[in-house]
Write a structure and sequence with these properties.
Blueprint lengths: L1 E5 L3 H11 L4 E6 L2 H10 L3 E4 L5 H6 L7 E4 L4 H15 L3 E5 L8 H7 L8 E3 L1 H14 L5 E5 L4 E7 L11 H7 L5 E10 L2 E6 L12 E7 L3 H9 L11 E5 L3 H11 L5 E6 L2 H10 L5 E4 L5 H6 L7 E4 L4 H13 L5 E4 L3 H7 L6 E3 L1 H13 L4 E7 L4 E7 L24 E7 L18 E3 L12 E6 L5 H8 L7
Parallel strand pairs: 1-2, 1-4, 2-3, 4-5, 5-6, 12-13, 12-15, 13-14, 15-16, 16-17
Antiparallel strand pairs: 7-8, 8-11, 9-10, 9-11, 18-19, 19-22, 20-21, 20-22
Helix pairs in contact: 1-14, 6-9, 6-14
């Protein structure tokens, strides 16, 4: 696929890195020639120096035969105008814009973005993606990651296996026998080894879950708490929901998250922000029950005075990776039950993964899935980038019939997938419109199915896969591709 990316900042850099690794033809536009030279030296892509709202620059970048434009420059206005020019002058088929403003969430905003407006097919907001992602971790505090499929009816969670939890030490086959009514499937295990990176362990019936393993499980959403408890908590240990939250950093992400959580009315929230003017702005805009504190989140005295030892979740969300790392490590040492650090640099995130920092979150990883769904071939509904971009979870819809499809009307055992690909679950009964929402007036509820070898795939089934390496994606797409006739 031929793709133009406008903007070589943090988001553009991360998007380019991910898409180049999938053998796409990438061109990046930016006004900063040095940034582009750095990208060209790192990745197999082309850089064009110039302003993305200049038709001549877009033409030089190859807009006339481009399949996808991703406008992620710093200014919303630049991204919107670039999409409109790409629509009117170059007829670029798919146009995505990074937009920070929340004004386009309304019905009027949707009209502005449409064909007769700015010509944007989809808007992405890194801050909103992060807020949604962190909110899921608040809802399921024992999880390291929570990714949704089929409109939220199914989830992929990763959890650190703990000694004493009911299913830790068991073989996978024994888990199925002990909980036959639980719609869950373990699709991946990453195991720690001395002096080595975590290693992928194939999930077979004889595989045993060991303490310290990072376990990836696909399950129906309503059964996620039961799954997490079975792998992370002793049976005699009660669940401890998140109530007290401390946020380091009152930027866009911190403010959005605090406002969203405060609306639920069940959290005690404190925000630590170093900038006095920003503190005043936060105090004026956030609900009165959110406490805004001016100070440094790496100040041990401040954390102690504010009761860090009673905090259920400490979130370091400043724009500085080093501050986030140090604040999280300090909060953990002083007694915070769980800590999350927002880390932009991939090398830092890799170093912090599996340390005293419970969750090292990369903003790019939270956003990439929304973009990858537009790059994938076939009827791909959702994509989630995992393990720092190495692995992937993919939701794809089975289309056609037995004559035109390699999967519809066939048993799972008859489908020829790459051997490393793990078919995790099937969601059946969703409306055939791609929305994931229930069809009004219909009494039949969608069903989450754990596929067995004899399970027959039906048309419009949403099938969720775990792929330990993204190089396996083309093989899955090929199998699900619909032809005029298969025979």
């Amino acid at each position: 696929m031929k793709i133009i990316i406008l903007g070589a900042g943090r988001v553009g850099h991360s998007v380019a890195e991910s898409l180049v690794s999938e053998q796409n033809d990438i061109t990046v536009i930016d006004t900063d020639a040095e940034r582009l030279r750095d990208l060209e030296s790192r990745f197999d892509l082309r850089g064009v120096v110039g302003n993305g709202i200049d038709p001549a620059v877009l033409a030089e970048a190859g807009a006339r035969d481009t399949d996808l434009l991703i406008a992620c420059a710093a200014q919303d206005e630049t991204n919107l105008v670039c999409c409109k020019i790409a629509q009117l002058l170059f007829n670029v088929p798919t146009r995505i814009a990074r937009v920070r403003s929340s004004g386009f969430d309304t019905e009027q905003g949707a009209l502005l973005l449409g064909k007769d407006g700015f010509g944007v097919d989809r808007i992405i907001c890194p801050e909103e993606s992060l807020t949604r992602y962190i909110a899921k971790l608040v809802e399921f505090p024992e999880a390291l990651q929570v990714r949704q499929f089929a409109g939220g009816r199914a989830c992929l969670v990763s959890v650190r296996a703990r000694l004493g939890a009911p299913m830790v030490g068991m073989r996978i086959a024994a888990m199925r026998e002990s909980a036959p009514d639980v719609a869950m499937r373990i699709v991946a295990i990453y195991r720690r080894f001395p002096e080595e990176p975590d290693r992928f362990v194939a999930c077979e019936g004889s595989t045993r879950v060991e303490p310290g393993d990072e376990v990836f499980v696909l399950s129906a959403r309503e059964q996620i708490p039961q799954v997490l408890a079975a792998l992370h908590r002793r049976s005699d240990q009660p669940a401890r929901p998140v109530r007290r939250i401390m946020v380091a950093g009152g930027g866009r992400v911190g403010q959005r998250l605090a406002r969203q959580l405060a609306q639920q009315g069940r959290f005690h929230i404190k925000i630590i922000e170093s900038n006095p003017e920003r503190c005043q702005s936060l105090a004026a805009q956030l609900p009165s029950d959110v406490l805004v504190l001016q100070g440094d989140a790496t100040d041990e005295d401040l954390l102690g005075d504010e009761g860090i030892e009673e905090v259920d979740l400490f979130l370091a969300l400043t724009g500085d990776d080093e501050d986030n790392i140090m604040a999280s490590l300090l909060a953990k040492r002083m007694g915070a039950r769980r800590v999350l650090a927002l880390i932009n640099r991939r090398s830092y995130a890799d170093l912090m993964h599996g340390t005293q920092i419970d969750i090292a979150l990369s903003p790019a990883q939270a956003l990439l899935g929304e973009l990858l769904a537009h790059v994938r071939q076939g009827d791909v509904q959702a994509v989630h980038s995992l393990r720092r971009g190495v692995a992937e979870a993919l939701e794809i819809v089975a289309r056609g019939d037995r004559k035109s499809s390699r999967v519809v009307g066939r048993k799972v055992s008859e489908i020829h997938l790459p051997p490393e690909v793990h078919m995790g679950l099937i969601v059946r009964g969703l409306p055939d419109d791609g929305s994931g929402a229930d069809a009004p007036g219909e009494g039949v509820q969608p069903e989450v199915i754990i596929p067995r070898s004899h399970t027959v795939i039906e048309s419009n089934d949403h099938v969720v896969f775990f792929l330990p390496h993204k190089r396996l994606v083309p093989g899955v797409e090929k199998v699900f591709r619909v032809g005029a006739t298969f025979f």
